[in-house]
Amino acid sequence: MAVLVQILSRYAPAIYAICAIAALYLLRVAILARRERRQAAFSLERETATNRTHGALRWAILLIAIMGATYFVSNYLTTAVEPIIAEADPTPTPVFLISTPTPTPEATPTVTETPTITPTPRPRATPRPVVTEPPPETPTPQAPVVVAANCPDARAVIIEPGANQQINGPVQVVGTAQTGSFQYYKIEFKPAGASGDFSFYARRDNPVVNGPLGTWDPSGLPAGAYQLRLVTVDATGNFGQCTVTVNVGG
Fold first, then answer.
1. pLDDT band at 239, cuts 50/70/90?
2. Does pLDDT of 229 surpass 90?
3. What would the pLDDT profile of 82-137 be if each residue is shown by its tens digit?
4. Which of 14, 16, 20, 125 is most buried when burial is the number of CB atoms within 10 A of its CB?
5. Structural domain boundaries in the chain
6. Given pLDDT bands bounded at 50, 70 and 90, which one contains residue 81?
7. Which CATH number fits domain 2-88: 3.10.450, 1.10.287, 1.20.272, 1.20.1250?
8. Which of 103-112, 141-150, 195-204 has the highest mean pLDDT?
9. CA–CA separation, 24 vs 4, rounded Å?
10. Which is more confidently placed, 138 or 246?
């Protein structure tokens, strides 16, 4: 009850304002209804306007009652309920806290630890490094020196390849093959130091002077030293020849 009285007393101005606005609205409704009742031509219209006027008056009486009750509560009941509110919400009694002094701990003497003596290790004799002699270098065999073929007969001369030349594939034979009454020349070969005849490789019927005689391909032959021979033949069967030793790679 005391709380309701406080609320009405606090919001009394707002309640008055709302009731005043509503009263103005109801006054306007009543004036319009009365005007319609005067201007109405039928009894039903006059009855409707009369009912609207009476309704506005009833609402106006209700608003007056609300305003009167609010005025009564805010001006008379508030004074009566103030002691009740004061008892319901008493003023808190201050509590005084007495601070208790904190005891200071006594100083404890610090015990100094006796340092630990670390024994120094005796120096050890460092072993002398053993000197390892490097293995003797194996001498690399030197390749034989390439020299020009020894061809004293001018009718058959091999310029290339030279003596002791390393051959790993097809090689062009360059030289001279000419004579009076020239008939043909041929190129032959066989393993160096082997007994027996030379193997035929190629034949040409035109003389050559310091030019290509043909291409010798040792592919398929075992690696080793071979003798390459040029033979020039004339119409009478006489011939000149030149032999050169070469090395065929594997």
1. very high
2. yes
3. 666 555 555 555 555 555 556 665 666 565 666 666 666 676 766 676 667 777 77
4. 16
5. 2-88, 156-248
6. low
7. 1.10.287
8. 195-204
9. 28
10. 246
Contact call for residues 229 and 144 (beta carbons, < 8 A): no
The three state secondary structure string of the chain is CHHHHHHHHHCHHHHHHHHHHHHHHHHHHHHHHHHHHHHCCCHHHHHHHHHHHHHHHHHHHHHHHHHHHHHHHHHHHHHHHHHHHHHHCCCCCCCCCCCCCCCCCCCCCCCCCCCCCCCCCCCCCCCCCCCCCCCCCCCCCCCCCCECCCCCCCCEEEEECCECCEECCCEEEEEEECCCCEEEEEEEEEECCCCCCCEEEEEECCCEEEEEEEEECCCCCCCEEEEEEEEEEECCCCEEEEEEEEEECC
Token representation of residue 124? 């050890």
Q: Which of 93, 226, 220 is nearest to 169 (CA)?
A: 220
Cβ neighbour number for residue 54 with a 10 Å cutoff: 12
